[in-house]
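Renewal narrative, Specific Aim 1. Our central claim is that a sequence can be written position by position from structural information alone. The example that follows is taken directly from our test logs and has not been curated for this report. It begins with the structure tokens describing the chain, in the order in which they were read.
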């Protein structure tokens, strides 16, 4: 005996009535006329060959068959909706925020692209993890990278997080600074010095907080906010950054992958080595070949580069240690 196909629209209408146990409320929820809803439920009962509701002038209740169908119909509609969402997601570009040029995140993205040749992965540059996360929560971007401790928005439970890299930090200094003669700069050299942590950057409070904790914890002073017109050194063109260093005399805290700027050098900090914790985050329900490619890129890069192998005695805020201890993929 052939099994009849059931229109998902009829199932959706049945589920609404079964949940509301009221045809008027269900019709309002579905934005259709109550008479049309009654016709659809009657049609479904004819097609499946069983009675689904007991209707009186006072109340609507489910029959045993209706209760069984409700459980199955709810599952079926959830799978149906997830299938369509996956198809739509996989057909569009995956929007990946990599924060800035030459970043660890951009390297992951460039490694992932050849692993998903049929998918499109597009980079976005928000300049700070906090701004990128706001984009993620507003569905303007799909994947973000950066330090999640210190962001202003709370990540919902349906966002997956994966540790990516513990990147050593350094100081950007003028090439004629006495410290430039050394291959590395010990943290003790910060004592008594003013260090620019890009505190004027409103897009990266997570970076500002890390820099302030690092500098003040080792005897240095955080530079005051930048003058109007230069919200953050990170957003300035190279010649303005060099001018800023020369006029203030403040070294700039930076990641070791910072783009080279004429007239300056970046020297790694040591004793202890301070680290910036990169994490990748995306919604758990997102299905896209680009997501798989990003994870495969990390599977390749993390062990090959030792990205999650901190040097002995490295410096990392306690908040980040706790975050890295609870990072489901």
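The sequence written for that structure reads:
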């Amino acid at each position: 005996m052939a099994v009849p196909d059931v229109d998902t629209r009829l199932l959706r209408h049945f589920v609404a009535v079964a949940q509301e146990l009221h045809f008027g409320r269900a019709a309002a929820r579905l934005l259709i006329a109550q008479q049309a809803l009654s016709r659809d439920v009657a049609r479904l009962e004819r097609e499946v060959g069983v009675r689904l509701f007991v209707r009186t002038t006072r109340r609507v209740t489910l029959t045993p068959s209706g209760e069984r169908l409700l459980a199955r119909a709810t599952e079926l509609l959830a799978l149906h909706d997830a299938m369509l969402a996956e198809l739509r997601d996989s057909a569009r570009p995956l929007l990946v925020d990599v924060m800035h040029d030459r970043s660890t995140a951009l390297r992951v993205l460039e490694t992932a692209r050849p692993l998903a040749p049929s998918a499109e992965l597009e980079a976005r540059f928000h300049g700070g993890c906090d701004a990128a996360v706001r984009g993620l929560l507003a569905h303007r971007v799909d994947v973000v990278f950066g330090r999640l401790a210190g962001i202003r928005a709370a990540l919902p439970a349906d966002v997956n997080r994966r540790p990516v890299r513990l990147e050593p930090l350094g100081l950007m200094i003028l090439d004629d600074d006495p410290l430039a003669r050394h291959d590395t700069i010990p943290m003790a050299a910060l004592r008594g010095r003013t260090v620019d942590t890009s505190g004027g950057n409103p897009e990266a409070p997570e970076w500002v907080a890390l820099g302030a904790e690092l500098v003040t914890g080792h005897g240095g002073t955080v530079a005051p906010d930048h003058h109007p017109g230069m919200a953050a050194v990170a957003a300035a063109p190279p010649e303005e950054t060099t001018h800023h260093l020369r006029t203030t005399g403040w070294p700039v805290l930076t990641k070791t992958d910072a783009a080279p700027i004429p007239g300056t050098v970046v020297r790694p900090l040591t004793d202890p080595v301070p680290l910036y914790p990169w994490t990748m985050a995306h919604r758990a329900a997102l299905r896209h070949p680009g997501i798989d490619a990003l994870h495969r890129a990390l599977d390749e890069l993390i062990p090959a580069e030792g990205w999650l192998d901190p040097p002995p005695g490295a410096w990392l805020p306690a908040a980040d240690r706790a975050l890295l201890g609870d990072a489901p993929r």
